[in-house]
Amino acid sequence: MATELCLAQLEPGARGQVLGYAGAPRPYLRRLLAMGLVPGAEFTVVRRAPLGDPVEIEVLGFLLSLRADEAAGLRVRDAPQ
């Protein structure tokens, strides 16, 4: 069984799957859902800025950049390579 992680723990090139959310404010949660980060959605970590913030992921065929504090509420797990 895969371990629950936060997005900041995944390295570039890693694949993940959204499990849910923890502590995300309601308006921001709606925005994440509208961008396709629904539970079960798979994504790939594309790159991370030199200081680690923001992180860029590919989800549903488009690139999305998330700040570390925004990504902290997103719970994910490793997806099979």
List the helices and strands and how they pair.
Elements: E1 4-6, E2 15-21, H1 26-34, E3 42-48, E4 55-59, E5 62-66, H2 68-71, E6 74-78
Antiparallel strand pairs: 1-6, 2-3, 2-6, 3-4, 4-5
Description:
This protein is of the alpha+beta class and 81 residues long. The protein has a single domain (4-78), classed as Ferrous iron transport protein A (FeoA) (SH3 type barrels). 16% of the residues lie in helices and 40% in strands. It has two helices and six strands. Strands 1-6-2-3-4-5 form a six-stranded antiparallel beta sheet. Strand 3 and strand 4 (55-59) form a beta hairpin. The model has no long low-confidence stretch (mean pLDDT 84).
Number of helices: 2
CATH class: Mainly Beta
CATH topology tier name: SH3 type barrels
* Proper CATH architecture: Roll
**Can you count the beta strands?**
6
Largest sheet: 6 strands, antiparallel
Q: What is the domain tally?
A: 1
Q: Name the CATH homologous superfamily.
A: Ferrous iron transport protein A (FeoA)
- Distance between the ends: 15 Å
* Oligomer description: single chain
Mean pLDDT equals: 84
SSE order: EEHEEEHE
**Class by alpha and beta content:** alpha+beta
**In which order are the strands of the major sheet placed?**
1-6-2-3-4-5
- Strand proportion: 35-45%
The coarse silhouette is globular
Radius of gyration of CA atoms, rounded to a whole number: 11 Å
- Poorly predicted ranges: none
> What share of residues is helical?
10-25%
